[in-house]
Structure formats: structure tokens, C-alpha cells
Amino acid sequence: SSPDPPVHPQTLQSSPVPQLRLTEEEKRLLAQEGVTLPGNLPLTQAEERLLKKVRRKIRNKQSAQDSRRRKKEYLDGLESRAAACSALNQELRKKVQELEKSNGSLLRQLQALIKETSTKPAQTGTCVVV
């Protein structure tokens, strides 16, 4: 009889160990802190705290950048509106000057007409009633 084939212990297929994925920014900040995290999960509580701290720093940095960007956009808008208001103000001042000049001219003409009519003798007219 032929010998039985050798029995190989079954290799257990365990689920793959989840990998820790870090962004470049996270890696850079961790290096600044002098920390190297293992590539596999789970992390220890201390490592979790450090990772949370680094992620919070990144969120705060992003939030500050967004805040500065919004402030700059707001200021740019205000400057643009101020420039438009200045231009309109200049136009309106010019228009007021023109109207004051025109008003003065019309006033002089009116005064001349009043003077002219007051110096003429009153005309007598005949009214015919039918």
C-alpha cells in the first residue's frame, strides 16, 4: 500500500491587520513631536492621544487658514465697496457743483426779469365785456 500523503497543517487565514494611514502633514507633525507610530492598528492609548493631538493641531491650522482667507475676502470686498462709494461721491459732488452754478445763473436771470418788469410803467388795458 502506498503511504498516505503528508498532512500539512492548515494555514489559518486571519483577517489582515488594519494599516494605519497617515497624511504627510500628520507624519511631519508626529516627527516634530519626536514620535514614530507603528504602521499597524490598534494603537496604545498614549499613541491614540498623540495622534488625536496631531489631528487637532491640523484641524486648528486649517481653521485658522480658512478664517484668514475669509477675513481677507471680507476686507477686499469692503475696500472695493469703499472705492465704488468714493467714485460715486466724487461724481455727485461734481453734479452738485454744476447744479449750483446753473441755479445761480437762473436766479440772476429771474432777478433781472423782476427788475425789468418793476421799472416799466404799468400798462393799462381795456377789457371788453360782451
Automatic annotation (TrEMBL):
Region ranges (Disordered): 54-74
Keywords noted in UniProt: Activator, Coiled coil, DNA-binding, Endoplasmic reticulum, Glycoprotein, Membrane, Nucleus, Signal-anchor, Transcription, Transcription regulation, Transmembrane, Transmembrane helix
Pfam families per the UniProt record, alphabetical: bZIP_1
Subcellular location: Endoplasmic reticulum membrane
BZIP domain location: 50-113
Signal peptide: none
Domain of life: Eukaryota
Membrane topology, as annotated: Single-pass type II membrane protein
Coiled-coil regions listed in the entry: 75-116
GO MF: DNA-binding transcription factor activity, RNA polymerase II-specific; RNA polymerase II cis-regulatory region sequence-specific DNA binding
InterPro entries recorded: bZIP (IPR004827), bZIP_sf (IPR046347), CREB_ATF_subfamily (IPR051381)
Cellular component annotations (GO), alphabetically ordered: endoplasmic reticulum membrane; nucleus
Family per similarity comment: Belongs to the bZIP family. ATF subfamily.
Name of the protein described by the UniProt record: Cyclic AMP-responsive element-binding protein 3-like protein 4
Organism: Nicator chloris
